[in-house]
Amino acid sequence: MVSGLNSGLPIHMSFSDREKQLIRAAFAWGQVSHKEGYTLSDGEIEKSVLLRRLLAGRPPLAFPPPLRHGFPWYEVIEGRGQHVVNVSEASTENSMIAPGSRPGDKYILIDGSFWRVAETISEREEYIVEWGSYPMQWRLRKHWEVNYEMTQQLQHFRKDNPNAGLRLDKRAGEGEYSEFRIDDDQTVWLSEWQLTRIGLSGWVWVGTPLEPTGQRPLAPVKEDEHGPLILSEPERATGEAWLRIERAGQAYRFVRLGEEICYEQLLAESDSSMLLHGVQGEDLLIMDWSEGEPLHRFAVPAQLAPLEEFDLDRLGYELVPENAFKANP
After folding, report:
1. For residue 189, what are the β-bridge partners?
2. Rounded mean pLDDT of 243-270?
3. Counts for the chain of helices (H) and strands (E), in that order
4. Sign of the dihedral defined by the CA atoms of residues 179, 182, 183, 185, in that order
5. If we measure between CA atoms, which residue out of 112, 108, 111, 135 comes closest to residue 124?
6. What's the pLDDT at 315?
7. What is the pTM of this model?
8. Rounded mean pLDDT of 295-314?
9. For residue 86, how many C-alpha atoms fall within 13 Å in the half-sphere facing its CB?
10. Three-state DSSP class for 123?
11. Which of 145-149, 211-215, 299-303 has the highest mean pLDDT?
12. Is the pLDDT of residue 221 over 90?
């Protein structure tokens, strides 16, 4: 509603919640687009995955995500699913093209984007890869499976044509590894490249990374068969308390329960999962922890932290929120 038209009085405007969301999304998208050097053309607006993400209520990530077939690939950062990808041969040529790489680094092309090779487990078979500024790693592995249909066709062909010469070469294509193999038993194996997240999931990167200044010393005050469950300030009766909400191997993720928590009452709670119900505030403090030391801290808006999906006894998570936009190339 607009008042004061043609009267010289200030104009007062009233917007619906949806209109306010659209304004915030457009403003945030304009800031990112300007920073990245994009124009606000009709074409950019129509194809922008980031704008659709903002309209769905998801903020930009702390760093740009990888591209997949030319589109931002948020799912590979925020989730922990396994992805089937197309891969080129790993090389050190033109290594400066890969985000975060230095001259001489090895890179590999995954679905059209250059990823840095952190470690070669087995040449042309398995790598540990990284992307840009994210302190995260993925396992890129060639997976082989028997193709029963092709195996049966090959056996029938050889049976019907015992004298036929059969030459089987690997698929042509420079640097491509969509290969098949035939073993001594005449079984046909097909390969595919699989990209899998290593370690903790990346949903925290919708939040703001915090500087490691002014942090209080912490130590486990309660553990279970999976490792540290609750962290507290040593030799104090009250203070900060952190509850483990996620784990992957020897890496753990905690949410802060509060600044002045009575540890005696905290430890008296037999069901640790009930402590999550006491987590409050617009922003949640999240901390990644490994080998007795904090790794990263984040301030994550409470509505973007999927606390209701956590199972404290479960090892793996697929925590891409329902309102995360997934682009199909």
Report:
1. 146, 181
2. 91
3. 6, 18
4. positive
5. 108
6. 41
7. 0.74
8. 77
9. 9
10. coil
11. 299-303
12. yes
